[in-house]
Design goal:
Layout (H helix, E strand, L loop, with lengths): L4 E6 L7 E10 L6 E9 L2 E7 L5 E7 L2 E8 L9 E9 L9 E5 L2 E2 L3 E5 L15 E5 L11 E10 L9 E3 L6 E3 L12 E3 L17 E4 L27 E3 L4 E4 L5 E4 L4 E2 L4 E10 L6 E6 L17 E5 L4 E3 L2 E3 L10 E7 L4 E6 L2 E2 L16 E2 L5 E8 L3 E6 L4 E2 L2 E2 L22 E2 L2 H4 L2
Parallel strand pairs: 21-34
Antiparallel strand pairs: 1-11, 1-16, 2-7, 2-12, 3-4, 3-11, 4-5, 5-6, 6-10, 7-8, 8-9, 12-15, 13-14, 17-18, 18-31, 19-30, 20-30, 21-26, 21-31, 22-23, 22-30, 23-24, 24-25, 26-27, 27-28, 27-29, 32-33
Length: about 450
């Protein structure tokens, strides 16, 4: 359960009719109502933007305990592998009702909504009051409905309704909506700009409207809108039976039956060479297995162990390599506290495993087509996902390049990551993190 939030007390009144929220958002949990932003004066006078439990984005203004504005999108924000750019522009002074609150998703203005109650003209929007009011980011005022995920480049504008194009633009090569790193906007009395290229809550707008961490820990991750890193995917059926946390990078399962977890990004022939790590937090029954699985796994949305499938290749806790339900002598046993490294060379279809920085079976991930010490030569023409088999209390924390195992930072950064991710051990030459940047090198 997420528990991190930011806050600021507003004492000077700004423009109560006009404002803009711009934020880049990556969701982890999609099952509950979660607040992104709230401007709170009293329980009956407040403005907030949230994800509904249905997956829609919703925004609402209360004045005198009456709802004077409510908009819920048609869109369902259920992709946990993507960053969304969300812009809400407010100007209740405009003559045309549909112009008073504009919503943009990844640069596209929304024109149809599931629910739409636009404010009346010149309606006080419960923003930028100084009575005082309280700005909260990442939760509802009163410490509930926490946002579970990541945020980046969050702007609050006091006094102007801006469009998405003021904060983002379409990449001329890829056609993908991306961040404008240098925006030209007027922030106004109570405006601020935080989470710029890191986890700083110091206001970058020049207004000195700094926020503070109200609870939890604000972590600086490598995952960002310009370079999306793999995580475990919570959308598989089996994911409802184990617990994912820490941005879907940690997994635990207590029951005496097998379940498999899979990554959000995939790799196929000729696509390159990829490296990631995971730390065994606990596995007292030695039931864990770690590796890759092709996306044709017949139990992908149900139960079972990926290593029992012909397209699943793993390093089992007992030290064996495992494929199709058959184990073979390979390396050292894995136990609590160990860090497993996975190197997948999709140019030569070779799979290697390390334990605490030592490549097992005298493996050499840089040996190319020779495949020295590789655990497997994987089948051609397949698309592979990172995979884990959990059972009987298996608890593991992945580091796909963020530099953390759960809440614990790597103890020392290995070399050779070429700026694409942070890892405990040296990344083999020619390998990269499993991220959108890594997939497009």
């Amino acid at each position: 359960m997420a528990s991190t939030s930011l806050t600021r007390t507003v004492s000077s009144t700004g423009n109560t009719f006009k404002g803009t929220l711009s934020a880049w958002i990556k969701r982890s949990d999609i099952s509950t109502e979660q607040y992104i932003f709230e401007n709170y004066e009293t329980s009956g006078n407040r403005f907030f933007v949230r994800f509904l439990s249905t997956g829609q984005l919703g925004m609402e203004t209360l004045q005198g305990s009456s709802t004077v504005m409510q908009i819920n999108t048609l869109n369902m924000f259920r992709d946990t592998s993507a960053w969304y750019h969300i812009v809400v522009g407010i100007d209740s002074t405009l003559a045309t009702a549909s112009d008073r609150v504009k919503v943009y998703i990844n640069g596209v203005q929304q024109t149809s909504y599931n629910d739409e109650t636009q404010p009346s003209q010149n309606q006080n929007m419960s923003i930028n009051e100084g009575n005082p009011t309280y700005v909260t980011v990442g939760r509802k005022y009163g410490a509930s409905n926490y946002f579970d995920g990541q945020m980046s480049h969050l702007h609050w504008i006091d006094g102007t309704q801006y469009a998405a194009s003021d904060f983002g633009e379409t990449d001329s090569t890829t056609g993908i909506w991306k961040i404008k790193t240098n925006v030209s906007v007027t922030y106004g009395t109570n405006g601020f700009f935080i989470l710029k290229d890191g986890n700083s809550v110091t206001d970058q707008s020049g207004q000195s409207n700094n926020l503070a961490v109200a609870g939890g820990t604000l972590t600086n991750l490598q995952d960002n809108p310009s370079n999306v890193f793999a995580t475990l995917n919570p959308l598989y059926y089996a994911a409802s039976q184990y617990t994912l946390s820490q941005g879907n990078n940690s997994i635990v399962y207590a029951t005496d039956s097998s379940r498999s977890g899979f990554g959000t990004l995939s790799m196929t022939d000729g696509l390159g060479k990829f490296y990631w790590e995971l730390k065994i937090v606990s596995d007292s029954n030695n039931k864990g297995a770690y590796g890759i699985c092709d996306d044709l796994y017949p139990d992908l949305n149900a139960t079972g162990a990926f290593i029992d499938y012909s397209g699943g290749y793993g390093y089992f806790a007992n030290g064996q390599s495992y494929n199709g339900g058959t184990g073979a002598s390979f390396g050292n046993a894995i136990t609590t506290g160990d860090i497993v490294g996975v190197a997948l060379d999709m140019d030569n279809r070779k799979l290697y495993f390390s334990k605490n920085g030592t490549w097992q079976n005298s493996g050499d991930p840089t040996s190319g087509s020779t495949g020295t010490g590789a655990a497997y030569t994987v089948a051609a023409g397949k698309t592979y996902l990172p995979a884990i088999r959990v059972r009987n209390g298996t608890n593991a924390a992945f580091n796909f390049g963020n530099g953390y195992f759960g809440t614990t930072a790597i103890s020392s950064e290995g070399s050779n990551a070429s700026g694409n991710g942070k890892f405990e051990y040296d990344v083999p030459t020619g390998y990269t993190a499993l991220s959108t940047k890594g997939l497009n090198l």
